[in-house]
Amino acid sequence: MKKLLCICIIVLSVAYISCQKNNSNQQTSGMTVRLLTDATGVDDKSFNAAAWRGILEYYGDTWENPRQRGSVYDWVTAQTQDMYIPNLRQATDEGYDLIIATGFTWDMAVDTVAAGNPQQKYLIVDVDWLESTNVMQAVYAEHEGSFLVGVAAALKALEDGIVNPRFGFIGGVPGAVITKFEVGYVQGILSIIPDAQIVDYYVNSWGEPALAKTQAKNWYDSGVYAIYSAAGGSGNGTIAQAKEYRDAGRNVWAIGVDSDQHEEGIYNNAGDSAVLTSMLKRVESSVLYALNAVKNNSFSGKIITFDLKAEGVGYSTANSAISKAITDQLEIVKRKITNGEIQIAPTLAEAMRLPGFPQNLRAIDD
Description:
Elements: H1 14-23, E1 33-37, H2 47-58, E2 73-77, H3 84-93, E3 98-102, H4 107-115, E4 122-125, E5 135-140, H5 142-159, E6 166-171, H6 176-192, E7 197-202, H7 209-221, E8 224-230, H8 236-247, E9 253-258, E10 275-281, H9 283-295, E11 303-306, E12 313-315, H10 324-338, H11 348-351
Parallel strand pairs: 1-2, 1-3, 3-4, 4-5, 5-11, 6-7, 6-8, 8-9, 9-10
Antiparallel strand pairs: 10-12
């Protein structure tokens, strides 16, 4: 994997992120931004939705009332990857101050267009291997947040008295980024239940919830207790199946990703949710960071890492099924990760060298 010669890893404090948010409603001097997404759009209730929330927050608007959409900010969805380069070129030709592409599938398209437009500023999320000096690249420590939700799922299984619990992982398009989700999750589970059985499956798409739903049903029927999906819009199928089964009295769980998907899992009038917790990947943090960099004339083509210490990742406690006993243990684990006591392998190759780590997962590092 190609790396920039100089990699800037910026650790953002909670106070700094808070300051960004406080400044987001200030004068933006007419600065314009366009968000480019894959076919799942900003309504994926996950990854792209988080990026869109960052833009709305910066301009002081809301999801329900995007007042300035079409004048200073906008988003465009590419229905196929063939549209990536045309959409990038169109946004570039229209003169947006910042163009944002979400996801590693945009890497070659962004690199191609950025190379021919050195004065244009681009942000790409989930990529750290491009060489264009006008592309800011934001990456996240998904393995750290995923470790926490793995711990949460395992602790909940023990709390429920589940004998020999099994756990599942559903990925979208395989690659190094999604591998960080999976290997972190598996390591978290194994830290609590060393002999736990893990199964995994890849949809090979961000927009096929029906495939994820079918796989989730098969697994739940075979005794899988909790399924974590890092699959964009496809992961909504896992949540849908978990909702059906919990509404029928089955003790199974879905685990959300990127955004807090608690509300997507609500299945009855009491407000109970089939989403045990969600791994929060705060994509909005990188969007806010890049927008402020453009505003302050400090934008540069560098790599920014948002980890657990910087609150770039985390976990949701919206579901009351996550008891205080579990959250207390999660906070202990969180402190141990941030202070270096717990080291989490971010790649499949490293994880497979750990004692007891499954050797048959479908994840890939490239």
